[in-house]
């Protein structure tokens, strides 16, 4: 792909023309049955991006009075973009089915990012995290089968494997071993900054989703499973959030976030097959270009610097929304036994004793991810569909 | 509106991607379950939690017997009156939701080519459900109970009905799909009214039981109506 400077030549839709009605925000959802799974992947990813856009902009506004009005104006639009995107998920998805879809997003998008990421340490972090989300998918698939009698592959549509990864019961680490080394804002490629913002936002929404729906389950093991995995997602937010350079200024973080939103919508628009939803991605790409240009103008006024200092460099190809089966299997074969000690990736035997100590207690009264998946081997049509001789 | 389910590109089945399915199944053979056991592990955990957990909540004490001993309360209100109050509360909640379900079904029928002629019938059932609701309010008040309280069984009736509510209010569902959801509601309602009458009689409240017999007859008519409307929508012969 071209550099972002090419994209910046396009001014996008001016903010005052970015309008919505309630009806269009809550319009016809995707089809759970007839749309491709990657349409749902894009919907969930972009909801995560928009939710994070709101979150980040609220934080920025707390630190600089001059930014409060423009951020409030942009947030009004982003709230409605977020609604239009999230309301595309149809109500016939049970919360557990949506959960399966969230994990598919975490696996397929993180795997795509890991292969596109030029910084070896950052790429390693994405591979490390994706093996955990891969395992969450397997445990949730067992829960879906054994609680609702449903096949997770109805959601995954054959794109994503359903086998154990790095065991969820071993994801619970001491905070010291969730922090990672950050990129250096002066040396990092633009895509490195974009990846960190993107995956942090995606994991944040996964965490928030599990925290919201976990207590709506009545099954005691499902409640415990959501508690367990939500905790790991919070660790993932810590992990991915620490990849970003804390030395970046508020304005720099804003620019990176807007660039990430442009990149993500452009990726969606490029690959979407549902024409109605493709039109939405194209419309919102133009909206984000408007936001990015506005942020660049404010950056020039306040910091008196060229936005290219932050957003310079070319971007590799768009996020590849496709099955990353071969890559994920390779990572599973080679890196399942990796653990962490502080910010370093180490063999299993060298894992931080603090993490082992933490885990010993938190796992001591039973582990939902183990309970639900005891002996679980995925079979098309659910494990009940296994024909015994 | 014609939303009859058609043949199309439903992507959910394994046969839509046989090559992917073959790879997935083979991979399960290579990386099988890493925790020993089977689904009974989940069952054991559930069993244990069922033993440990408390209940959903309580039946509110009727205002008329506040401060009385349980034995005096039973003497005044019959055998095990809290059970009857709980189940009356359940029926009341169910009928109240039923009114809303029929209102949603009427809206759907209004949007369907085949639905408009059903509207008077559905409206009649809706009004019957509302009348039943008041019958239950009267019964609860005759026991000194608060008809505005949500009893445990009333609460759970809402949980049970939430699926039917979603299907009937979803603008994407067709009339047959909504009627199918309504059938599960009416089947339950029928059995529940029968049981409630027996419960009232057994508890020494024959007056309440007899006041419900007409409602039961109407509910049986509702069930037959919904059953035949559904058969008609599905084009089942004889309808």
From TrEMBL, chain A:
- Which InterPro entries does the annotation name? Ferritin-like_SF
Recorded hits in SUPFAM superfamilies, A to Z, give: Ferritin-like
Q: What is this protein called?
A: Ferritin-like domain-containing protein
Provenance organism: Halopseudomonas bauzanensis
Please name the taxonomic classification of the source.
Answer: Bacteria, Pseudomonadati, Pseudomonadota, Gammaproteobacteria, Pseudomonadales
TrEMBL record, chain B:
SUPFAM superfamilies assigned to the protein according to its UniProt record, in alphabetical order: Ferritin-like
Which residues fall in a coiled-coil region?
none
One family name in Pfam for this protein: DUF892
InterPro entries associated with the record: DUF892_YciF-like, Ferritin-like, Ferritin-like_diiron, Ferritin-like_SF
Report the domain of life of the source organism: Bacteria
Ferritin-like diiron domain boundaries: 169-239
Q: What is this protein called?
A: Ferritin-like domain-containing protein
- Origin species, per record, is Halopseudomonas bauzanensis
Taxonomic lineage per UniProt? Bacteria, Pseudomonadati, Pseudomonadota, Gammaproteobacteria, Pseudomonadales
């Amino acid at each position: 792909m071209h550099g972002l400077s090419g994209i910046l030549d396009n001014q996008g839709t001016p903010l005052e023309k970015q309008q919505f009605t309630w009806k269009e925000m809550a319009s016809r959802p995707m089809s759970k049955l007839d749309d491709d799974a990657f349409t749902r992947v894009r919907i969930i990813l972009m909801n995560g991006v928009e939710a994070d856009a709101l979150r980040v902009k609220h934080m920025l506004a707390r630190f600089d009075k001059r930014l409060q009005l423009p951020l409030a104006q942009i947030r009004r639009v982003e709230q409605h973009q977020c609604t239009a995107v999230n309301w595309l998920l149809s109500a016939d998805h049970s919360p557990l089915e949506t959960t399966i879809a969230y994990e598919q997003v975490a696996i397929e998008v993180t795997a795509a990012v890991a292969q596109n990421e030029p910084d070896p340490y950052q790429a390693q972090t994405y591979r490390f995290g994706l093996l955990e989300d891969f395992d969450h998918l397997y445990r949730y698939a067992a829960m879906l089968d054994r609680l609702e009698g449903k096949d997770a592959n109805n959601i995954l549509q054959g794109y994503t494997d359903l086998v154990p990864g790095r065991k969820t019961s071993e994801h619970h680490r001491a905070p010291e071993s969730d922090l990672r080394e950050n990129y250096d804002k002066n040396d990092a490629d633009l895509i490195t900054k974009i990846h960190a913002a993107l995956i942090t936002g995606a994991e944040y929404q996964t965490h928030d989703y599990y925290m919201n729906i976990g207590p709506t389950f009545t099954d005691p093991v499902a409640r415990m499973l959501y508690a367990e995995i939500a905790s790991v997602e919070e660790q993932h937010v810590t992990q991915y959030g620490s990849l970003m350079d804390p030395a970046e200024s508020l304005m720099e973080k804003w620019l990176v976030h807007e660039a990430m939103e442009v990149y993500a919508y452009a990726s969606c628009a490029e690959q979407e097959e549902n024409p109605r939803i493709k039109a939405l991605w194209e419309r919102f790409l133009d909206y984000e270009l408007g936001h990015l240009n506005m942020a660049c103008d404010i950056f020039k006024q306040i910091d008196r610097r060229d936005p290219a200092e932050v957003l310079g460099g070319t971007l590799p190809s768009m996020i590849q929304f496709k099955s990353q089966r071969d890559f994920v299997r390779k990572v599973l074969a080679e890196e399942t036994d990796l653990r962490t000690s502080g910010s370093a990736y180490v063999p299993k035997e060298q894992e931080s004793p603090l993490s082992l100590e933490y885990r010993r207690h938190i796992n001591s009264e039973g582990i939902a991810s183990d309970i639900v998946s005891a002996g679980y081997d995925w079979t098309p049509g659910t494990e009940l569909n296994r024909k015994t001789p | 509106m014609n939303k009859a389910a058609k043949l199309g590109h439903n992507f959910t089945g394994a046969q839509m991607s046989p090559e992917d399915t073959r790879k997935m199944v083979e991979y399960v053979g290579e990386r099988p379950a890493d925790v020993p056991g089977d689904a009974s592990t989940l069952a054991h955990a559930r069993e244990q939690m069922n033993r440990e957990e408390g209940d959903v909540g309580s039946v509110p004490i009727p205002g008329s017997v506040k401060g009385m001993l349980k034995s005096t309360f039973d003497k005044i209100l019959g055998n095990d009156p809290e059970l009857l109050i709980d189940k009356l509360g359940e029926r009341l909640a169910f009928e109240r939701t039923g009114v809303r379900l029929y209102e949603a079904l009427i809206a759907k029928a209004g949007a369907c080519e085949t639905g408009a002629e059903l509207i008077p019938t559905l409206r009649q059932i809706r009004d019957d459900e509302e009348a039943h609701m008041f019958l239950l309010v009267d019964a609860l008040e005759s026991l000194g109970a608060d008809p505005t309280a949500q009893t445990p069984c009333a609460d759970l009736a809402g949980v049970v009905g939430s699926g039917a509510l979603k299907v009937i209010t979803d603008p994407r569902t067709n009339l047959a799909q909504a009627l199918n959801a309504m059938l599960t509601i009416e089947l339950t309602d029928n059995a529940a009214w029968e049981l409630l009458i027996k419960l009232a009689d057994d508890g020494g409240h024959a007056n309440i039981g007899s006041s419900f017999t007409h409602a039961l007859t109407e509910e049986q008519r509702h069930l037959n109506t919904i059953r035949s409307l559904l058969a008609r929508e599905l084009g089942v012969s004889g309808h």
